[in-house]
Amino acid sequence: MMQKYVAAVVALTTVLSLPALAKTPELPAAVITTEGGCVAAWPTQADSNAAGSVHLALLVKEDGRASDVKVLESSKSRELDKAAMYAVAKCRYVPDTFNGAPRMHWFQLKFDWVPGQAATAHD
């Protein structure tokens, strides 16, 4: 009797998990909302001649907030990288959806720094 029960549970679990085997569509780019303002202010501690680009990866949660931010490519200025990470953490994004429900996903952004100026995120 127990073997039939286990076999039925295994069969049911296999059938229920088949949709999960379907290919997941490619994730769309997160949309940066203007009200969150994804602009990084020039950090006062930065060298006045510092410049460059910082490339970040962030995990966008279901509520549109960034939960994890990583530097993929540094600007070679610690202060500029930190300012970009701070701005990304304050931004709000439109989360990806699956079957109509929001879901977490990874997204990448880049900030291009010009000495003494704020930098705006772009993908």
TrEMBL record:
It is found in: Membrane. This is TonB family protein. Residues 26-120 form the TonB C-terminal domain. GO terms for cellular component: membrane. One of its GO terms (biological process) is transmembrane transport. Residues 1-22 form the signal peptide. Its main location: membrane. InterPro entries: TonB/TolA_C, TonB_C. Keywords: Membrane, Signal, Transmembrane, Transmembrane helix. Coiled coil: none annotated. NCBIfam families: tonB_Cterm. It comes from Duganella guangzhouensis. It is a single-pass membrane protein. It comes from the Bacteria.
